[in-house]
Amino acid sequence: MSKPSPKPFLFIGKSVRDEYGRHVGRIASFMVKPNGQIEGVFVQHGDGEFLRYPSDQFKIDGESIVVVPPIKLRVKALCNEIPLIWRKDQALTALSKKKKFPSDLFEILHKNFEGALDQLKKDAQATLDTVDKQIAKCERQIKDLHAALINLEIEREIGRIDDKAYQTAMGIIQQGLKQANEEKSDLEALRTNLSNLILGETPKEISEETLEETSEETPETTAQEEEEAPPDSQLPEPPVVVDVKQSS
Length: 248
Fold this sequence. Notes:
By secondary structure, the protein is α+β, with helices and mostly antiparallel strands. The protein has five helices and six strands. The chain folds into two domains: 61 residues, PRC-barrel domain (SH3 type barrels, Roll), CATH 2.30.30.240; 164 residues, no CATH class. It has a six-stranded mixed sheet with strand order 4-3-2-1-6-5, with no helix packed on it. Helix 1 runs antiparallel to helix 2 and helix 1 packs parallel to helix 3.
């Protein structure tokens, strides 16, 4: 879990929701490594099915437990990995010009970095296709909810539904529309970031509104990346800075 608790089993039976407030299920148990680290979470869904989720897909929001869409975690990883590889390749080129190592070694390392970038961009394209499918799903859901709203108004107009049932149905439909529209906006922001990556326009920062707290890095991971990446003062900035407006 992105904010681990020293007593994770206190969360057993707690409700799990997605980022848009939809009920997902409740926590049944955890998969625990011998060293005590949580690596998986077992969730009982509303239909009774049990599924295991990776622990980094969860975050704690006050008293609530939120499951983060895996697509967001993947986009965040790509938005971090692609600029890092690009900057390493630029550092390699700068060091080669200073005659820090033999030219044949430069060619080998440069091809390795280029290959890694090409593969990551292919992964980004595949992820973009997944995002597009999810956006289309949200659009279909929004269309269906609008149809449900129109039919509800018609039934009320001809007197086939009383005010209490009307208000109940209206609340359900409006909540569904709010959730679907929020999810669609988030997915569209992810699509923009991914499109920029594929085109070689690397965003300098990842929007916190879009990818907020999706997967916090451990101190060990951060330290490792700092060791791998040369100091910023010695490297050029990524090729293009894209300012992406995110929805609230």
